[in-house]
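Worked example 2:
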Amino acid sequence: MSDFFGEDDSVEKNNSYIGDDDLITNTSSRLPVCLCLDISGSMKKNDAISALNEGVEAFYQAIREDEQARNSCEIAVITFNSEVKIAEEFSTVDKKGKVHFTAEGGTALAHAVNRALDLLEERKNSYKANGVDYYQPWLVIITDGKPGDPEDIPQAQSRTKKLAEERKLTLFPIAVGSDDNEEKYRQVMDVLNGFSNKSAKHLKDLKFSDFFEWLGKSVTIVSASKVGDKVRLDTTGMDDWAEI
C-alpha cells in the first residue's frame, strides 16, 4: 500500500500556461503531477509510443470525469530523448489538448528527472506565493532503456530519493518493455530502483492505458482528501498493469 501526505513545508511549450491568475480564481488544493516520459527511438519497438500516447489521453480522461480532480490536479509533461523538453507546462485538464509524441533519439534520463524536479519546485513556490494548499507532488518516470547520461544519474537519484524520504515527493518509476533481453532489463530496473527506496514497477505488455487509468483513479482518491491526511491507494488494480 502507498501512503500520501501533504507537504511537510506547507523551453518549449505546447499548451497555455495557467499562471497565478488561475490560483486566484480556482482556490482548490492542488495536486501537481509531473509526467517524465521516454520518447527515445527504442519506443518505436512494438509501437510503444502509440500506446504511450493513448495512455496519457486515458489519464486526462480519468481526471476529467471527476469534478474535484479536475479542479485540483495540475499536470506537466517532460519528454526526453537526446534532449529534454517541457512538452506541457502545469495546467488543469481543461487546458490540455490531444497529445502526440513521436519516438526518436537517445535517453537523457538524468537531465529529464532533474528538470522535472525543478518544475515541481517552481510550481510549489507559486502555490506558496498565492496561499494555495497543495498535496505532496507526484513524479511519474517512464523509460524503456539505459540512460544516455549515466554520469549524471547518481546525482538525480540522490536528489529524488532525498525528497521521497522527506515526504516531499511521491514517485512512480515505471520500466517499459519485455525482459527477453535480461541484461538490459536488469540495468533499467536497477537505475529506476535507485530513485527511491521502493521498487520500480515493470509495465505489462505495454498496458499504458491501464496504468494511467489507475493513476487517474488514484488522483481522484487523493484530491478528495484533506491536505496532510494519510491516504491509502487501492493497489489491487495494479495487478492489471504491473509485474508485481
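Residues 1-6, 8-18 have pLDDT under 50 and may be disordered. The CA atoms of residues 64 and 70 lie 5 Å apart.
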